[in-house]
Amino acid sequence: MISVCPLVPMVPESKRAAANGGRVPLAVRDKQRTTSAFTGTYDEGEICKLLAMLSSRMALRRLQRIAVAPLSFTSGATTKVLRDMSTLPRVYVTRQIPPEGLKILQDSGQVQFELWDSDDVPVPRKELLQKVKGVDGLLCVLTEKIDAELLDAAGSNLKVISTMSVGFDHLSLEELKKRGIRVGYTPEVLTDAVAELTVALLLATSRRLIEATHEAKTGGWGTWRTLWLCGYELANSTVGILGLGRIGVAIAERLAPFKVNKFIYADVGPRPELAKAINAEYVTLDELAKQSDFLLVCCALTPETKEICNKNLFSKMKNTSIFINTSRGGVVNQEDLYEALSTGQIAGAGLDVTVPEPLPTSHPLFTLKNCVILPHIASASYSTRNAMSALAANNLLLGLRRQPMIKELKLTLCSDSAFLHFDRTSADARVRCGGREVGRPLFISYPPLSLRSRGPARLEEEEEAS
Ligand SMILES: NC(=O)c1ccc[n+]([C@@H]2O[C@H](COP(=O)([O-])OP(=O)(O)OC[C@H]3O[C@@H](n4cnc5c(N)ncnc54)[C@H](O)[C@@H]3O)[C@@H](O)[C@H]2O)c1
Fold it and tell me: Which residues form the D-isomer specific 2-hydroxyacid dehydrogenase NAD-binding domain (predicted)?
């Protein structure tokens, strides 16, 4: 059933139409009255008539606030009629994002959007390249590669990209910068969820929980044994963090009560403001590998961090160490990790992220008892995914209004065409070029309120703030 809710042009789904002999089940809801104005199965001609009825019954302003389910006509007259109804900016949403974000887009009255109506299957590349043609804004998730090919397909109308992720390794930042396209992303709202999951993964790996439940279920549980299923504990340990950003700090805060003895970290340079909060010592990457009982990877995936966790790093780690990665799969050389785990070079690994995703079930890492693999779920809590969706929607709307986004990635090209990026709300933001710190950004005054404590951000609040 297609639900037509206030805001964006109504479009039935071609697949369903085809399965239904060209007729499409449709509900047009008058949101103000919360009743269905029309419900039934309609063909394209009938839908045109319904739209005509709607337009005669409602004032223009109201009409522009009519959202129509984000499903698309394949072609033809109806599409044309719908286009003519509105001059609102066009937006393509590459996934069925959680309801908070969709509601914000719908209720804004500011855009007409179409979305890939599935959460299970990413939009096929070919379809995406078609759908982005002429759009003003794009709301994407991390499965979509936003590169020169896509930006060429979109054309010069495209001014804003909003990704529902804090990671931006799927975006070709140089291309975006070159074309003057602004980028919104979703830091902070997911920090708690990711930190919590990282702690869960660490404990599951170090205390061998997955192996243990398997043994209990499959008859391996004999008598109580002195060294059976022993693991490694956090008390008195040294925890090393590679990339002490928001998530790294949040993880350390959660691990401290486990009586960790010492936190150390490696980054592109010391981060004293953040390190102070968790009493962490800055060390080189080599020292991080050598000293850590638990090595947690929390850095962004960039050209500099690609496969930074490789044979060289694993060979310096203790054979009692636990390696945890909840950043991006690309920071790890998986062949080297397999080697380190299978030869006992390190004790165990917990991965939330891999290359590729999904990791094929035949992958050698799945054969190892000392490797716990999760399907990229670190931010997967209902409240966080809704907050990410809301923030991504608001970033997009603000960008289209040429206002400062709530969370915007500022991009500046260096002479060597490496990019600079910084988050203007970060307390100790530094401007970096190719991993080198080259200065501090000019701060734009912005309310440093936690979006989490305020609940999902709403556009109206940000209007006041900006
Ligand atoms: N598994 C998931 O579902 C999930 C969810 C959210 C975020 N993430 C990943 O976590 C990453 C970190 O998120 P955050 O909010 O803490 O970002 P952040 O920007 O606050 O922290 C990233 C840290 O990595 C550091 N870094 C960058 N290049 C480095 C290098 N060459 N060597 C060492 N450190 C380097 C940065 O200086 C920074 O301190 C994201 O980029 C994202 O890829 C994964």
Answer: 199-378
